[in-house]
Amino acid sequence: MTRLLRLGVALLMLCATPLLAQDFPQPADPYVNDRAGVLTPVDEDAIRAALRAARSETGVHITVLTLPSREAIAPGLTLETFATALFNDWGIGDATRDDGILLLLSMQEREVRIELGRGFASQWEGVTDAIMEKTLLPAFREGQYARGMKDGAIRLVEEVARPFAAGEAPARDLTGPLVAGGAFGLFALLGARRRIGNLTTRLRRCPNCGERALRRSRITDMPATRHASGKARRITRCGSCGWETVAYINLPRLKTENRRSGGGFGGGSSGGGGSSGRF
């Protein structure tokens, strides 16, 4: 009987081994690891620049990972279990704040996951649910994987990382996706400055009809790089009468990465919070 019991325990340990010690792929870059090859070099550089800038400004580390198949790496694990285990294996985010974010795309399984660090309260899942439903899944169902990853990453910066770092509560109305063309230029300004500017615009009356219906958006015509400045347009439009004005903006060159705040992983962990989608 004792021998049978020992044999049973040994079999259980053997079955549990894949769950306890997965051989996860290791990151080659702190911000973008496109193992599925769905991103163009331009998209990859744009995402990396946005996430690097966001981390420098807010301290929140967001990383993007695409895989040909997660099942090939860890057979039997659910998407959620896989994402949490990989997140903790990599140590995404700061170890004291646990404020990392993982955006994971698995092509063969047609799944996408936003995994949040332990530092995010459950209310932030309402924000990530909206990003999943309004930005990621619609793009992926159209086969626009690069666009979905790029726009999804930018929304995570603007609607999760920046307000979280500023101590703000999660926003409730997140149904409107960001304008893709203006996504590249958003990381050039501090989040607080952007929010204050939008608030003051909404409080002003339209010079044409007098209603408080002004909204401001920005479109980047030429993204800034480390070697050249960029160009953008800031558009103020009245939602009541359609009046519109355009201001032209010069975007400063991107700064060289600060190695003390930009590279590597900080030892953060996740407790399984976030949002999942299947397309």
UniProtKB/TrEMBL annotation:
InterPro entries: TPM_dom. Residues 32-157 form the TPM domain. Residues 1-21 form the signal peptide. Keywords: Signal. The keyword Iron-sulfur does not apply. It comes from the Bacteria. Pfam families: TPM_phosphatase. The keyword Transferase does not apply. Residues 261-279 have a biased composition (Gly residues). Transmembrane segments: none annotated. Residues 259-279 are annotated as: Disordered. This is TPM domain-containing protein. It comes from Pseudooceanicola antarcticus.
